[in-house]
Amino acid sequence: MTDTHVDERTEAGTDNRRAFLQTIGLATTAGLMGTAAGESDSAESTTASSDADLVSLTHGVAVGDVTATTAVVWARAAEAATIHVAYSPDQSFDRVGYDRTTVDAETDTTGQLRLESLESNTRYRYHVWATAGETAYRPLNGRTGGPKGRGPGGSNGKGKGKGNDDHPGKGRGPKKRPNEDGRGDGDRIADAIPEAVESGTFVTAPAPDDEAAVSFAWSGDTWGYGDDPVEPPFPGLRTIAECDPDFFLYHGDTIYADALTPAGKVTEDTPIDEALEIYRGKYKEMRDPPAEVADQTNLQELLQSTSVYTVWDDHEVINNFAGPIEPLMPEGRRAFREYWPLDRDDDADPGESNRFYDSFRWGKHVELFLIDTRQYRDPNVDLDSKTLLGQEQLEWLKGALADSDATWKLLASPAPLGYPSDSWATEADPTGYEAELLEVVEHVQTEPVSNLVVVAGDVHKSVVSAYDPDDDGEFEFFEAVAGPLGAPAGEPDDLYPALNPTEFFAKGEYRNFATVDVAESGETLTIGIYDEHGTEQFTKTISTSDIDAAADPENPDRIESTFDEDAEGWLVSQNGGSNRPVYHGTGGNPGGHIGDAENKGGVAWYYQAPFEYLGDREAFYGGTLSFDLRQEPADQQFDAEPVEGGDVLLQSGDRKLVYEFRSADDDPGEEWTSYEVSLSANEPWVDLTSQEPLATEERFREVLADLEVLRIRGEYRSGDDTSYLDNVVLTK
User: Locate the Laminin IV type A domain: which residues (predicted)?
Assistant: First the structure.
């Protein structure tokens, strides 16, 4: 149940304890009606009785999913209670909005309240408290004549913006809030608040047509990892609060359910009916750690100072879990909903929706897109076709990116697009989700989606990079990765070569966070990387002219890889996994070339083409694919059955076409051997996924129109083998 009460004409001058209590109604409980009217002989008797009706809030407060006109307030009571919130755009609390909701054990006594009709681009202050009875409270000095509805209504409060002292600290890096005399109205009000009342502040987003600067911070990966967790207090959280960002993006692994902490540890063997309490305990100790661990984690301080957008990743459930096949996911998802202020589904009350993806607009220049890479994913195993986002979320993301007119599109992906992980692109044994990554990247190019910047976490390093997957000399998107805040950090790895990356900065083995600052003009976006104490590690300013996602309207007549300078984004694929080939600067046919060695057995391994070759290539129907191969030694040869991929494989979704060179002399020798095959149904291409044994022209064109995989066989020998590739050319 949620009730709403508003009065625009409350008494001013709340600079002492009793006046504040009267302003927000705590001195007007049912048993103190006469006292509130002035029948008490002392303020002490009023406040003492009022305090007795309060139920303590146990884990601070938070505000999340802020828009220009709405915000969600979160709190947890010590027992079943009514949670109340009073909020105002004025430091003096002259104009007060009010809301309340009841909570009980069903949600672990957590509650969320959605505030509406807020003023855009405005700093709000709020106070939250709980009472034992639903009817024990009469709001705002018992007046009932004020207008009904959510929020403080149409007011003329001072908005944040350029030159507004209510919102200091804009710009790069940590800054302490200025305080001219050391005590403002907010400080004096704080002196009047009972200990059972929790307070905080947040800033609403600028309106979509508002030319406004925007600043936010992000990181993730807190409370340790494995059996030996890194312990609080996580100084990075405190440093972020000192930056005074417009909002904080808490980017995944907000708890480590599968790490041993005082709250317990979730494993594959944890009974489902016990998992929920462990998950809940993890969120509680992140806000209020056990005394034997630390006095604080600094998370409450951060959440009280700004709003938060929270993204989940794997450790909110269990390491590297995959969507609906994970039996523990529903309980982990429930606890995540209970302990974060979420408002991402128009058809559900806050905290009750299973949809965690959405977009949030911050003025004319910024739109933040939050995606869920866990809830809908297929297992990360060798499948012909699998999804990371799920079809509904994928189509939403593509449409939302294309429809956005914000100057900068900020894609909050829990895991990076261009850095290897267990998600978008994986170079270990699992196959990754390269086909879906290609679909997103191709969509960015063809729409086109301008000024895309990906902000990510998960990999426990800080990396700033840009990507030119079609190799046209223009970056399609930038990406910045930050974290961890508490988990152990490793050394950076190489970026995903198939996306044709350019690396500007990479650093590991330290705890860190990052910031984004978009200029009021919208012309520039600055990425900052900081260690947990606020020391700058790297900054890069990007202008709108640095990104050109538009694909060349004329398809090239020729795509080639001569390997004269590097491996040009090619990978080696085997047994469902992929890794980098070895690059050789000399000894090719001529110049440089790539190669790899394999001694693990299994099906034949392949050279895998980068994104430059993929996408809509129907115009190449009737053209040719040529390449040079060499191996050492050339004995113990075996034939690759078509079901294993033949000598060349073309794939689109679950549609596979393979070709075999059938001559007795077609195995590559110890000298370079040249191959060429026509991309047409005139050649005997085998259709592995149709009732027709050979590919028809229609089928061939379907595959080329959305080409997701092009592979060239590299293994021809049943024993230990080494193979080399050079001069791959795709021509019309």
Answer: 565-732
